[in-house]
Write a structure and sequence with these properties.
The complex is a heterodimer of chains A (254) and B (293). Chain A is built from eleven helices and no strands. Chain A has 254 residues and is an all-alpha fold. Classes of the chains: A mainly alpha (254), B alpha/beta (293).
């Protein structure tokens, strides 16, 4: 198991590092932009009044930094860029081995397919969670730089919800990586399904399909306690998709 | 005990039957060559032996175990070089050897260092920089480094230049003579099979059409020119399978068969024929006779 995890880490370390750095920069920038929305960044000029008024009209009330972080970081940038990272990392997990003809070497070694899949999931999910934690740290740091301190309980609860959501996306990408022997197609299908769910979730009767509604909860802004239902839904969906991935992989012929 | 036994094994992919009642026996300690044209079922047979696929019907045992049930444990005793494979290009030669050794539960030890003097590969370099020949050699190096009981090679020299091929086969011959290693070798390059294998099986359309020792095939397969008496023809020959027959004139025939010469002469005499001439055939032509039929 250790050898398999070492191999996964070695192969994916660059993707994980780039994901962590990119998400952290976005997290930092999103928080610093809070100051910008409040009236400008010192030394970088003021927002022209006509735009400031427009922004105030269009944007929600950001007097609460938790509300700002929830809407702009946890529900938007982290969810979107994190989903892309999840798809890039897991979409090529098994499909990449088949496409690059390393599958026949790997699966003919004396290790079970379950162990191979487990090593991939542990390392790549771990990389994804690390990126969420590091970048959320960046977002909090950015908020502190502009003189706003988000509530710790809120940050922890929202981070937990984001991790659950991204693990669900990663589990979907894992399933498609097992099903589709081409990593680009596996990634596109995974992304396509998430986009379709997000678009369908814009319509009221299908609101529950929206990943934001499935795994998140705006209640966190006022009551910073993890919400049981979205977390259970996320964990159960992830477990089901990983279970199906394992079942299919066990029966696949190489 | 036989290293590999296949009895009536079939394998279907949907409507396509890749293997049809395949039978094969690989004696322990032998270098066994499985020969057949492309698409005859060689790679499918190997994947079944490794437990990468399950047979649709029939019985298959490898080193006394059932691959589909005991695959993980069984593969620890097998070294395998696939036909069309890649190694992780960003790893160095040494890293892939260490990775493989850890999967087999052993360490990069003396055996790897001993083999390094044999293979002379630049192990500190990334695999991405290796030539095709070097990658094939590294594949064999990896397979031998865990001291397997059975080495399975799927068309290992396909696409190699003669110098690398000769080196590859030389290393293989040295390693098999060093210890009691069974080698199962699939190929369509007849000269190398003839050179290094002691037993071969010919495959055609998903089943074996012949299995015997190479020397036995070369010494027993003959073209007999036979004159038959009035009312007689090769069809009257009993107890021996005729591989090919060709009428030269009204009563003279060229008859090809795999049989002991004395037995063949007796069979022809019993069928009213007189043997006029006996010719041998090169190994590659014998192979063609079986797989073209």
């Amino acid at each position: 198991m250790k050898a398999l995890m070492w191999k996964e880490l070695r192969e994916n370390r660059l993707k994980i590092i780039v994901g962590c750095v990119l998400l952290s920069i976005i997290g930092l920038a999103v928080s610093i932009a809070y100051r910008f929305l409040e009236g400008g960044i010192p030394g970088m000029g003021q927002i022209p009044p006509e735009y400031a008024d427009l922004i105030k009209k269009l944007m929600p009330d950001f007097s609460n930094v938790n509300a700002y972080l929830y809407s702009q970081w946890f529900s938007k940038n982290l969810q979107q860029v994190g989903a892309i990272l999840a798809i890039v990392l897991l979409g090529s997990a098994v499909a990449g081995e088949r496409e690059l003809h390393t599958a026949i070497f790997l699966f003919s070694r004396p290790v079970s397919r379950g162990m191979i899949l487990a090593a991939k999931v542990i390392v790549l999910f771990g990389g994804l969670v690390l990126a969420v934690l590091v970048s959320t740290g960046g977002a909090v740091l950015g908020a502190l730089i502009v003189g706003k301190a988000p509530q710790l309980a809120f940050v922890l609860a929202a981070t937990l919800h984001s991790v659950v959501a991204l693990i669900a996306f990663a589990s979907l990408a894992t399933l498609l990586s097992v099903l589709v022997p081409d990593r680009v197609k596996a990634m596109l299908f995974s992304g396509g399904i998430i986009i379709v769910l997000s678009v369908a979730g814009q319509f009221k009767p299908l609101r529950w399909l929206n990943p934001l509604a499935l795994f998140g909860s705006p209640n966190l802004i006022v009551s910073p306690v993890p919400q049981l239902v979205p977390i259970v839904v996320g964990v159960v969906l992830s477990a089901c998709m990983l279970g199906i991935s394992y079942y299919i992989l066990q029966r696949q012929e190489f | 005990m036989n290293a590999i036994e296949m009895i009536g094994v079939s394998k279907s992919y949907g409507q396509v039957r890749a293997l049809k009642d395949m039978c094969l026996t690989v004696p322990t300690g032998s270098i066994f060559g499985l020969m057949g044209p492309n698409g005859s079922g060689k790679t499918t047979s190997i994947k079944l032996m490794l437990g990468l696929m399950e047979p649709t019907a029939g019985s298959l045992t490898v080193l006394g175990a059932t691959p589909s049930g005991d695959g993980t444990v069984l593969r620890r005793r097998i070294g395998f070089v696939p036909e069309d494979f890649s190694l992780y290009p960003q790893m160095t030669g040494l890293e892939i050897l260490a990775f493989n050794a850890r999967l087999y539960g052993c360490s990069v030890d003396e055996n790897v260092r001993r083999l390094q003097t044999v293979f002379e590969l630049p192990l500190a370099r990334k695999i991405a920089t290796y030539s095709k020949g070097m990658r094939k050699l590294l594949g064999l190096y990896i397979a031998l480094s865990t001291e397997p009981e059975l080495l399975i090679l799927d068309e290992p020299t396909d696409g190699l230049d003669p110098v690398v091929r000769s080196h590859f086969l030389g290393v293989l011959a040295d390693e098999t003579s060093r210890r009691n290693l069974t080698v199962f070798f699939s190929s369509h390059i007849l000269s190398e099979v003839e050179k290094i294998c002691d037993t071969v099986a010919f495959m055609r359309s998903g089943h074996t059409v012949l299995q015997d020792e190479v020397e036995s095939i070369k010494t027993q397969y003959r073209v007999y020119t036979v004159r038959f008496g009035a009312g007689h023809s090769p069809r009257d020959v009993k107890n021996i399978t005729i591989q090919r027959e060709r009428a030269l004139d009204q009563d003279t025939w060229d008859v090809e068969m795999l049989a002991d010469q004395e037995q063949a002469r007796t069979a022809f005499a019993d069928a009213g024929g007189t043997v006029l001439n006996v010719q041998s055939l090169p190994f590659d032509e014998i192979f063609m006779r079986f797989v073209e039929a």
